[in-house]
């Protein structure tokens, strides 16, 4: 080990005391064990500041100084370090670093690493506010979730806080009665009441609930639910087809058809009908106005009658009257070779009419076919007359009666010739010609169609001796013997045609659009119902059928058929490979339809559901002209399904048909004080 060198005393007394670093706090450091003779005052000055460090006395020799002692010279007074007043220090690129040559003699200012108190408090407050806000939103949001937003009202009915199902049930129970207010319609000063069910008004509960906010609410929803209310309007729908029928019923009671001028005969006396203008209810406008009134919850609707002008003129009527007087002044003789037939004035008058020509005038029209029925045998042998192919029931079995081509008077030509000579006074002889007349239904059309057995029949009853019975019997007679070919679609309106007085129909009561009105051919819906049920149990395909608005006990529930020309028809298709013969029979109190073909099924059954959703009928008194009293009947809904059986097993079934009957009001006519 070498000799140790003597310990050298530091020439700088501060070398043994470490200066505070940037990580040191601003508090004055506590310095222990200072060398003898060194006072703490050398560290004086404001807290956090250090005195200037004396320059090292490297060049001073021991003993130099005023006292000539060993102590260093007295330090100059402490100078505080300057503090920056918000101005940035010069960058390193512009000023030398502390301690570097040419640099500043003072150290940089210390940076306080500890933030002020407010900087520590503000973030905490912000976090607390966020937590409170989330808490204030989530708690009520969870409570409101799964239900309709609180404060939601529909037409004044509060559904807030309810589940969707509960809200729907409450609306059905409370809102239906609230919106089912009748609308009073005014037509030319007369007022009538239209009930909501007559207009086909229905509450769309699903759409109404769909407008309300439900599920998990957002912040705005929660605020709305806690502080306000949400008003919703009920969603209503109008069954346009029902409203059209109601308007049609209104029109029947208010229409005044224009009356065309004409000339008819009372015996041999010409009777003049002067032309007269009329008014008709504007159907389309009425449907729109009544529908708008119900949807907007208005109490009244004013409907419009439009003028309808007659085409004929009074001058044309006067001219036709003079021509009619000449027409029955003498008989008309029909001649073919040596054969003669006479049309007496009474026959001429019975089959002569004057109709509008569409230009304001009147022209004669002679029904030669009907007039010949009584006299054609005098001109043509019966054995030569044509005959349509048809079937007749002999011994409970259908037998084919083949068609036959024959000869007959050309009725179209005869009608033109008679109309030309009726105005003449001199020559009243009309030469006629025979023509080959082919049958309208050929044998080939109806033979070999498998018409061999009764496949279905149905009967309905009615009260005796009413005008409607005449119409039912007349329609049955027109349809008797009609054959529906395989694949053909049968239309009752197309086959029978419009019901008119000329075709044998009379005025009778019929429900049209919920109102009992008198129309030509009233009551024929009963025949349509009878025919429909025969086709139903015959297994034929239904194409078009309109159920009746109200239930009548004389008809099977869910299987009735309304008939009105030309709007409501009954159509069914012969979807078999066999022909179908329609045979009808009627009495004073019943009508029966039998269908003859080849049986395809052992049995066809109508499966009915229970009658549900009953609705009570209202009572009303009417003093309107032509009031028809009715017996009130309740409404209900029923389902009917047709099931087909063969060999004792079910082979198919139709889709379920749902019929909703409306309650029919009891109408008491004030003028007669009678009830139906």
TrEMBL record:
What InterPro entries does this protein map onto? Glycopeptide_resist_protein, Vancomycin_resist_VanW, YoaR-like_PG-bd
Please indicate if the UniProt record lists Manganese as a keyword: no
Q: Which organism is it from?
A: Nonomuraea muscovyensis
The segment(s) forming the YoaR-like putative peptidoglycan binding domain are: 194-296, 359-429
Q: Which spans are transmembrane here?
A: 121-143
Question: Where are the compositionally biased (Low complexity) regions?
Answer: 51-62
Name of the featured protein = Vancomycin resistance protein YoaR
User: Which stretches does UniProt call biased (Polar residues)?
Assistant: 1-11
What segment(s) does the record annotate as region Disordered? 1-116
Q: Which UniProt keywords apply?
A: Membrane, Transmembrane, Transmembrane helix
């Amino acid at each position: 080990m070498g000799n140790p060198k003597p310990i050298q005393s530091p020439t700088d007394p501060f070398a043994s005391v470490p200066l505070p670093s940037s990580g040191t706090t601003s508090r004055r450091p506590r310095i222990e064990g200072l060398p003898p003779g060194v006072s703490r005052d050398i560290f004086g000055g404001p807290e956090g500041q250090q005195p200037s460090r004396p320059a090292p006395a490297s060049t001073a020799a021991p003993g130099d100084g005023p006292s000539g002692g060993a102590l260093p010279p007295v330090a100059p007074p402490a100078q505080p370090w300057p503090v920056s007043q918000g101005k940035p220090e010069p960058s390193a690129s512009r000023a030398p670093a502390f301690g570097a040559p040419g640099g500043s003699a003072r150290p940089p200012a210390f940076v306080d690493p500890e933030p002020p108190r407010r900087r520590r408090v503000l973030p905490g407050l912000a976090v607390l506010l966020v937590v409170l806000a989330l808490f204030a939103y989530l708690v009520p949001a969870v409570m409101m979730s799964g239900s309709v937003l609180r404060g939601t009202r529909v037409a004044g009915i509060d559904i807030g806080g309810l589940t969707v199902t509960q809200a729907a049930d409450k609306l059905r129970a409370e809102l239906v009665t609230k919106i089912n207010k009748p609308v009073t319609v005014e037509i030319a000063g007369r007022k009538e009441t239209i009930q909501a069910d007559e207009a086909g008004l229905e509450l769309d509960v699903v759409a109404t609930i769909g407008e309300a906010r439900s599920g998990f609410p957002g912040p705005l929803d929660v605020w709305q639910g806690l502080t306000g209310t949400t008003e919703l309007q009920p969603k209503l729908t109008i069954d346009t087809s029902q409203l059209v029928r109601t308007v049609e019923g209104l029109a029947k009671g208010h229409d005044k058809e224009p009356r065309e001028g004409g000339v008819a005969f009372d015996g041999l006396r010409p009777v003049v009908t002067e032309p007269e203008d009329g008014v008709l209810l504007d159907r389309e406008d009425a449907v729109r106005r009544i529908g708008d009134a119900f949807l907007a919850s208005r109490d009244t609707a004013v409907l419009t009658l439009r003028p309808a002008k007659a085409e004929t003129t009074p001058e044309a009527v006067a001219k036709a009257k003079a021509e009619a007087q000449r027409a029955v002044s003498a008989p008309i003789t029909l001649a073919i070779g040596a054969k003669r037939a006479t049309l007496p004035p009474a026959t001429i008058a019975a089959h002569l009419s004057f109709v509008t020509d569409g230009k304001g005038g009147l022209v004669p029209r002679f029904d030669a076919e009907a007039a010949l029925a009584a006299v054609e045998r005098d001109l043509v042998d019966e054995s030569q007359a044509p005959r349509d192919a048809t079937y007749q029931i002999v011994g409970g079995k259908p037998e084919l009666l083949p068609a036959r081509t024959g000869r007959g008077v050309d009725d179209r030509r005869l009608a033109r010739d008679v109309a030309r000579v009726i105005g003449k006074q001199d020559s009243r002889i009309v030469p006629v010609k025979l023509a080959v007349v082919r049958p309208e239904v050929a044998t080939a059309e109806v033979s070999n169609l498998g018409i061999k057995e009764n496949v279905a029949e149905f009967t309905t009853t009615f009260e005796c001796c009413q005008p409607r019975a005449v119409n039912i019997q007349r329609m049955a007679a027109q349809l008797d013997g009609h054959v529906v070919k395989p694949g053909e679609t049968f239309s009752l309106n197309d086959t029978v045609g419009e019901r008119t007085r000329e075709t044998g129909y009379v005025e009778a009561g019929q429900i049209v659009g919920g109102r009992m009105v008198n129309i030509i051919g009233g009551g024929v819906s009963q025949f349509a119902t009878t025919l429909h049920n025969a086709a139903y149990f015959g297994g034929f395909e239904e194409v078009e059928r309109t159920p009746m608005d109200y239930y009548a006990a004389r008809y099977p529930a869910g299987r009735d058929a309304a008939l009105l020309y030309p709007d409501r028809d009954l159509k069914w298709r012969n979807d078999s490979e066999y022909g179908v013969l329609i045979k009808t029979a009627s009495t004073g109190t019943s009508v029966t339809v039998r269908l003859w073909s080849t049986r395809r099924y052992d049995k066809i059954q109508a499966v009915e559901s229970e009658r549900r959703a009953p609705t009570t009928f209202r009572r009303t008194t009417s003093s309107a002209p032509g009031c028809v009293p009715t017996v009130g009947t309740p409404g209900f809904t029923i389902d009917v399904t047709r099931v087909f059986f063969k060999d004792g097993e079910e082979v198919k079934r139709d889709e379920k048909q749902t019929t909703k009957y409306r309650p029919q009001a009891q109408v008491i006519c004030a003028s007669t004080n009678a009830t139906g």
